[in-house]
Design goal:
Elements: E1 4-7, H1 17-26, E2 32-37, H2 49-56, E3 63-68, H3 76-82, E4 86-90, H4 97-106, E5 110-115, E6 133-137, H5 152-165, E7 171-175, H6 183-189, E8 193-196, H7 198-202, H8 206-213
Parallel strand pairs: 1-8, 2-3, 3-4, 4-5, 5-6, 6-7, 7-8
The chain binds D-xylitol-5-phosphate and zinc ion.
Length: about 220
Amino acid sequence: MTVKVAPSILSGDFAVMGTETIRMQKAGADMIHCDVMDGVFVPNLTFGHKMVADIRKYVDIPLDVHLMIMRPERYLDKYVQAGADRLSFHIEATDQAAENLMSIKNSGIKAGIAVCPETPITNVFPLLEYLDFVIVMGVHPGFSGQKYIPETTARIELLCEEIKRRKLSVEVEMDGGANESNVRIIAGAGARVIVSGSCAFNSPNPEKVIAMFQCRD
Ligand code: DX5
Ligand code: ZN
């Protein structure tokens, strides 16, 4: 079982983000996760597409952009132009999810949808045909360093069963609350990308954390 690890720059030092992303790439990160927050969809504000464009100049690994903003359709093009390789938005933040996914895919990058813990995971089932990946949130979006909600594991399993049953190749990503003691459970449930904010960035030895999260055996 191999898992891709995406350190979330939400836990990095915003004043030196170029250096921070290089540090994660050197430590073995598979991609960089960029949490865009608008202070409306979630009770926190981070950064916009310029940060993504600027980070693009520092690292070669894919940029996984997670939009936590209302009506993401207003800005999808901006993030494509900024250099996102994977772009996701929340199912709860729009009434035109399928249209948005098609627009992202037509831009030539991977399209994903993120689902909050209180939203039934079955709500994404009608969209699976349009998706490259689904982000199952392990915490209420807004902040890093929160505790993993244990019910997330069963949600990942249910989603993976449905993807398998329909013979689709949608990747499942888990975002929020991953740590040393639950990473194997999350990967065992079927997640193939794991986001890590606090564990990756706050560790004195990010190489070790990333290698362990990759579950290489
Ligand atoms: C939460 C963000 C996550 C967060 C993860 O709203 O989407 O990406 O930064 O941080 P940890 O791993 O610390 O929960
Ligand atoms: Zn995220």
